[in-house]
Amino acid sequence: MARSSAETNTSSAERTLTMARAGREAVLSEMRRNPNMFLIGEDIAKLGGVFGTAVGMADEFGIERVIDTPISETGFVGIATGAAMAGMRPIVEIAFVDFIGVCFNQIFNFAAKTHYMSGGQYKVPLTFMIGYGGGYNDAAQHSQTLFATLAHVPGIRIVAPADAHDAKGLMHTCLRDDNVTVWMMHKRLCGLGWLGFPLPTAMSSVPEADYTIPLGQSRVWREGTDLTLVGLGLTVHNSLLAAEQLASQGISAEVLDLRSVVPLDRDGIFRSVAKTGRLVVADEDYLSFGVTSEVLAVVAERDPSVLKAPAVRVAYPDVPVPFSRPMEEACLPSVERILAAARSVMKGSKR
Amino acid sequence: MARSSAETNTSSAERTLTMARAGREAVLSEMRRNPNMFLIGEDIAKLGGVFGTAVGMADEFGIERVIDTPISETGFVGIATGAAMAGMRPIVEIAFVDFIGVCFNQIFNFAAKTHYMSGGQYKVPLTFMIGYGGGYNDAAQHSQTLFATLAHVPGIRIVAPADAHDAKGLMHTCLRDDNVTVWMMHKRLCGLGWLGFPLPTAMSSVPEADYTIPLGQSRVWREGTDLTLVGLGLTVHNSLLAAEQLASQGISAEVLDLRSVVPLDRDGIFRSVAKTGRLVVADEDYLSFGVTSEVLAVVAERDPSVLKAPAVRVAYPDVPVPFSRPMEEACLPSVERILAAARSVMKGSKR
Amino acid sequence: MRPEPKQRLWMYEAMFRSRQLDTAVLAAYREGKTPVFHMGKGPLPGEMHQSFGQEPCAAAVCVHLGPDDAVAAGHRPHHVAVARGVDLQRMVAELFGKQTGLSGGRGGHMHLYDAAVNFFCSGIIAESMGPAAGMALARKMQRKPGIAVAFVGEGAANQGAFHEVLNMVGLWKLPFVLVIEDNNYGVSVSKRESTAVERNSDRASAYAMPGEYVEGNDPDLFCVAAGRAIERARRGEGGTVLELQTERLQGHFIGDSSGYRPQDERKAMRDPVPEYRQRLLNETVASATELGALEKRVQQQVDAAMQFGRESEYPAPEQALERLYA
Amino acid sequence: MRPEPKQRLWMYEAMFRSRQLDTAVLAAYREGKTPVFHMGKGPLPGEMHQSFGQEPCAAAVCVHLGPDDAVAAGHRPHHVAVARGVDLQRMVAELFGKQTGLSGGRGGHMHLYDAAVNFFCSGIIAESMGPAAGMALARKMQRKPGIAVAFVGEGAANQGAFHEVLNMVGLWKLPFVLVIEDNNYGVSVSKRESTAVERNSDRASAYAMPGEYVEGNDPDLFCVAAGRAIERARRGEGGTVLELQTERLQGHFIGDSSGYRPQDERKAMRDPVPEYRQRLLNETVASATELGALEKRVQQQVDAAMQFGRESEYPAPEQALERLYA
Ligand SMILES: Cc1ncc(C[n+]2csc(CCOP(=O)(O)OP(=O)(O)O)c2C)c(N)n1
Ligand SMILES: Cc1ncc(C[n+]2csc(CCOP(=O)(O)OP(=O)(O)O)c2C)c(N)n1
Ligand SMILES: [Mg+2]
Ligand SMILES: [Mg+2]
User: Which among B61, B122, B74 is positioned nearest to C141, based on CA atoms?
Assistant: First the structure.
């Protein structure tokens, strides 16, 4: 990272913000500090971004630095990449992660590889702002998560904050990074009324001052001794709710928030699982070849003997997201599914 | 699968073929049986496919059924998908898997999801023929494997045969399947002189008659009791060579060939690991969120206690493929790396 | 020059049916979403892109189509589906996410499929162009009659698929018509802000095919131009780019206030449905009584479809795991 | 109308340098690949797309460029890199995969990057157009001088990126020139078989920019046309599509026999390098002695670069894991 500082416990004033507001605050501050930074994407200048990530930006910075594009993702991702190679610091808004399929080559074969293929001659300081996730009946092409699709290919750093504090800090981190970074926000966490009331645990108190959060450091939201609940983004909150109920049944669950998918805090994952001996991973991305696969693999290759019971994955099943509410509800990594998983690992074979 | 039959031990004549020849034989036979089947892609009519997968096809079937396209992958993948929805059975050649980034949306958001999104009204009997893999210094954009990129998204069946016999049988299976299937051939296995002499173990004896191989059935190339070496495609052969050397040191390795990535033979993987208690997975795809992750996850979620030692992954590290030979060699899942992994699992903590 | 009276009545009926459907859907969509608008609540959740104002485009094209033809729409599909004759009850049931829906609730508003009339859509911009051209190719290869029509918005004309597909349509002379519904906006971005040229129909020459731009959101003018393009495709002379100037009378989706549109522009908006009704009366194509009867019949169909959708059962949760593969 | 003598000599030198480099590379590439051709063997492994016959395109464009400008090439980059003035020794070392190479051996023949002259390429067709246009945008936003030029083949003009990028170049009037090297083939597929129109330059009108097609693989004619396009970009008047009719004198890559090309076509092939040399003599732009001296000097540079590439060290295997991130 370019100018990453350790996580700051600033003494400055704090306010409670939504994740969208908190992320936007970081963008505003970095845009003010850096004239080479600009926003580019669809519906950001006049609309302020479909998810409100760019509200007011055009008024402050003008449409030269807040650029509405045609519906040409391959074109403007490529253009942003070239601008980054030439000294600019673009922020690319892609409202739904579901759309990466129309520009995936520019992302993974060019932007992500240019620093390496050029032997370090060209930096690509480019940050994607991407919304993900379902749960509001937007069906198969507007509800996906796709963490692993982006994380499997080398050269892309990916964060998925779970609350406003991390949304701001990780946005600062991404915007100061000299590499391709992806800041991903679950649509149901962002705090837009029309996507549901923000979860209280996602709307957190946020320092006014700038601060960064180092990549690859997971966050323990709740200490526990009997099992580890790993999540990221929305599943952190579902895990916390599950942990509450488990506590009332005398089960002590530790809730670990990955915060960044790449780099992945393998040490943090293993440390917690080694302590509790039991693992449940909750993720809204598809099950197979996904985030949950990698988390289980970490334990299997470090020391599977720490597991007192088989690990359980609570992921999106390997089917497209159905439109109809009862079908989608059944597929989401809900509190209920996490609870069921937790009970099964507690029952699981002791040694 | 439409008309899948159990694996046939036909009494008909057998010949030793390269994988490319064997796959082509299946295509020829299915094209002859089915007038609605056609080939579409770049450089297939006059050139016969960059990797020889379509040699002679245009002469026999004419350029109406062997269609050379412009360099417009999103366009012709979409066109092939629509033709499939209208009753045709297209075979789409994409020479290098590295190119899926320019047509990924049509593949994963439309072709793979149409049967589901339409509630089964539209079938998409479409087979991709795709080359993958490195080891001949083709660098970062022409050497990738990307199994997991395709396998992570639901609705795509993926096979990666390791020898000519499976190349033919799995091609028949794909071409008779009424879903989107991907037949992937490692460029260094196909048997083209200019990509290196075919490995003797890849050039196998092939029945003249048609036969299919059920999806999701791994193949045990070599029985063993001390550890399981899981591979697919080229890494099967590296695992076999490693097993040879291990045998000479009194270590009995079982070599398991996944054969299909989707569906994955989870039972076959677990059965073998439960028997041997030790696991090494070799794969040329990137390490993280990859095939090796999923294989380890299977064991961790079924019963990690069968592992006498931590599992070891021999995958492509999370960097782009470097051009320079010594650098690329060091990254490939070589016999040496598999051997080192096997030794470490044998040393690994007993219980 | 005017279309046949039969055609004009057919168009009015298709436009009116779409309008009454969207009106009923709008009301149902609002249920459960007040006082605070929450997209995920109520009997009709999810994004909802309606067709108020764009009815003429679909009616004027589909009036020329028969059972052998294929039709693709995008994220704003209601008027196209209705004009194509998609089963209204099962379509509405799909919008409600019911088991009796076209896809048993798996598809939803942006993913309406009705194989019985060779209809499909897709929510990714310009993505259905390739599959539609593929249906045209299949007809040509199988020497079967029929053409394919794809409907996209003017914003889709800047997506790479537009270029790749039209080049192959031109190259292979596929029986295909691209209908561009130019409502001047892609969400909040106006055509002038997104498109280097004034008319996408002028881009047709880049693919060696004719392009035609028709102004005025006028069903009669649209009908004549569409007839030419479709006949040309049927004669095996290849594709056409037909760009139709239309009007988006509501926001991009329900909940969008269109605040980014200038006042005068919003004031100048005209509603093609009542206008066309009036023209049919003025030109004595039908009497008020005849139109009244037609409207009553259509309204009953729409009401019946809404009732069917509402009263149908939801699918069982576990059905989410079915139908992935054939 | 002729370019300046200085320009013409510069162009001949650039063409000759590229030609001698490709000649030396061809010989080195063959080493270790006989009797049986195996792409992975020898000192120069991997795919190798050479530029025999296309030298005029790069020379005639780059003669107009200065240090502020940016240049992007594709999978066939040698003539462009040479004309752009990429460090010859480090370029050859990169082809050999040596530590002293431009990217320390990580890039290779299809991924030549030289930030010192704002040069890069990419092996995915049409993929470098967007980044090149982005470099043009950066110059405009930073109010810095300089333009960007992207070189692609005629086959790339059917890739979606072509459409998306040119639309934004036209929309935002970016200082950009697209050079299409029309060698009439994309691997084995001829332009007639891949492209609905005869000339991609005619597609420029779809992006509200001028397009020009120049025939004859003639450095002088190319130079004049390129000068117009580049001056236009420098004046802030936006982009141009410049399509240059050239000739692929060898197979698509080394190992391809071009068996798919008709005999007469192959017979009719003309070599622009000796032809241009003769013209310079005929028109007394330079004497045989002067050209001889120029050629001797260039040959020495090429020999030195080849020697540097051969004799440099390979990177250590573990360096494969370095340089992923800044
Ligand atoms: C590839 C892609 N990018 C972005 C979107 C988000 N999106 C949905 S509709 C829309 C605007 C489409 O405009 P237009 O094509 O004119 O159709 P209209 O909405 O006007 O009917 C956008 C940008 C998408 N669905 N797909
Ligand atoms: C997106 C993509 N599809 C296919 C290829 C394989 N490929 C490499 S070069 C080439 C032909 C390119 O033709 P053209 O653009 O005319 O350039 P030329 O080779 O004639 O210089 C193809 C199809 C690729 N590299 N990228
Ligand atoms: Mg529009
Ligand atoms: Mg060419």
Answer: B61
Does the distance separating the beta carbons of D326 and A2 come in below 8 Å?
yes
Residues with CB under 6 A from ligand 2: B 42, 71, 73, 99, 102; D 75-76, 123-125, 152-156, 183, 185-187, 248, 252
- Give the pair of three-digit tokens for residue A202: 């996602």
Cβ–Cβ below 8 Å for A121 and D115 = yes
String of b and e for A160-183 (b: at least 16 CB within 10 Å)?
Answer: bbbbbbbbbbbbbbbbbbbbbbbb
Cis amide prior to B263 (ω within 30 degrees): yes
Percentage of chain A modeled with pLDDT above 70: 96
Encode pLDDT of A316-328 as tens digits: 999 999 999 999 9
Residue type, position A305, single letter: S
Residue B180 above 50 pLDDT? yes
H or E element at residue C32: none
Q: What is the pLDDT of residue A6?
A: 38
pLDDT of residue C46: 96
CA distance linking residue A194 with residue C251, whole number of Å: 15
Helix H or strand E encompassing D153: strand D148-153
For residue D79, the CA-to-ligand 4 centroid distance in Å is 14
Residue C255 clears pLDDT 70, i.e. is over it: yes
Q: Angle C88-95/C5-30 helices, nearest 10 degrees?
A: 30
Q: What is the CA radius of gyration of chain D?
A: 19
- pLDDT tens for residues D155-174? 999 999 999 999 999 999 99
What rounded mean pLDDT belongs to chain D? 97
- H or E element in which residue B93 lies: strand B89-96
Is the CA virtual torsion B62, B64, B67, B70 positive or negative? Answer: positive
**Which ligand 1 atom is nearest residue C54's CA?**
21
Q: Is B142 a catalytic residue?
A: yes
Smallest CA–CA distance, residue B63 to chain D, in Å, is: 11
User: Binning pLDDT at 50, 70 and 90, where does residue A349 land?
Assistant: low
Helix ranges (DSSP H) in chain B: 19-33, 57-61, 73-85, 104-105, 112-117, 147-151, 164-176, 234-248, 266-276, 291-302, 325-331, 335-347
Written as six digits, the tokens of B257 are 């060939």
Give this prediction's pTM: 0.97
Q: Whose CA is closest to atom 25 on ligand 2? A: D124
For B9-77, give the secondary structure using H, E and C: CCCCCEEECCHHHHHHHHHHHHHHHCCCEEEEECCCCCCCCCCCCCCCHHHHHCCCCEEECCCCHHHHH
Looking at residue A185, its pLDDT comes to 97
Q: Which ligand is nearest to the CA of C52?
A: 1
Which residue(s) pair with A54 in the sheet?
Answer: none
> Residue C116 carries which DSSP code?
G
Q: Return the number of CB contacts < 8 Å for A and B.
A: 175
Could you give the strand order of the β-sheet that contains B312-316, starting from the edge strand earlier in sequence? Answer: B219-222, B253-257, B227-231, B279-286, B312-316
List pLDDT tens digits, range A223-271: 999 999 999 999 999 999 999 999 999 999 999 999 999 999 999 999 9
Q: Considering only CB atoms, which chain D residues are within 8 Å of B72?
A: 158-160
What's the one-letter identity of residue A128? F
pLDDT at position C96 is: 98
Say whether residue A82 is in contact with chain D using an 8 A CB cutoff. Answer: yes
Other CB atoms within 10 Å distance of the CB of residue C296: 9
Phi (first) and psi of residue D245, to 5 degrees:
-75, 115
CA distance A28 to chain C (A): 22
Specify the pLDDT at position B349: 53
How crowded is residue A92: how many other Cβ atoms within 10 Å of its Cβ? 27
What is residue B11's predicted lDDT score, i.e. its pLDDT? 53
